[in-house]
Amino acid sequence: DWTPEHTLETLTAExxxxxxxxxxxxxxxxxxxxxxxxxxxxxxxxxxxxAVFVDHGLLRLGERQEVEQALRPLGPALRVVxxxxxxxxxxxxxxxxxxxxxxxxxxFVRVFEREARALEAQGCRWLAxxxxxxxVIESAGGGAGSANIKSHHNVGGLPxxxxxxxxxxFRYLFKDEVRELALLLGLPxxxxxxxxxxxxxxxxxxxxxxxxxxxxxxxxxxDIFISALREWNLYDQVSQAAAILTxxxxxxxxxxxxxxxxxLALRAVTTVDFMTADWARLPLExxxxxxxxxxxxxxxxxxxxxxxxxxxxxxxxxx
Length: 319
Ligand code: XMP
Known about the structure:
ligase; alpha/beta; GMP Synthetase, Chain A, domain 3; nucleotide-binding; Rossmann fold; globular; 11 helices; GMP synthase activity; 2 domains; 319 residues; binds xanthosine-5'-monophosphate
């Protein structure tokens, strides 16, 4: 019968049979799929695996540490590449959302290409990806935008002279099955249940220019929101949640003085397929508590609003 244990053994055997004694490169994003794949590959082929995690400086608070912690079993097979300066430099002055995506995608390929070339020179032939069955269907069907949306994580843009064979052990699995594997492989709970997070990260949750100061403000506010969702046991009841920093400033009062702070939007949605989504009816007492915490702990923010628009017509992200 078809148990997660059975799937685990089958995939392990398949991977071993396919790659033999050769080396495998994997890009990990911090999401469930690539993290689970990292643990699976490591179980199957040990240090023939190199997993590369690019810190583009657009991650949530503590996210990098969480990934490092979760993938500690990999030991030196995990390479964390610190590239914040490169990404933030490239994003300077960029305000258009699509342009931000392009820049992040381009820099990601640059960083990853460096790693890939070094490995290729050492005879590495395989590039592993956490492609799931629905992704396979979608790219075969052509129509839907999400294959393209996810392009930079799926490392489509590597130069043609880098010849890797693709290894996609999850291409017949659904997300739930990957989550079951993750449990068997000991992937920690916060990553196993994590909401999706876009490849361009916080860059598309800061409307207008991305600066280190704005990133810092958004990171703190976002962390308060997400931590509160967990604390109130609401995290698993929504499909995705985000704080969005607008470039708007509004007037307020702090003590006896007028203040002038950023407008921050909170967004939480429920959805099955992310193609349509409903705004989440979070309890008002919860929203009240979050708004208080954010304005108290992040003085740069003067006003907190909650997005009550569904998709369509609004997208989940604001950019
Ligand atoms: P939208 O905003 O289009 O988002 O309703 C649908 C889902 O896709 C995610 N998303 C992205 N993921 N790169 C990604 O990897 C992107 O550029 C991107 N844009 C949106 C979004 O977070 C949501 O889960």
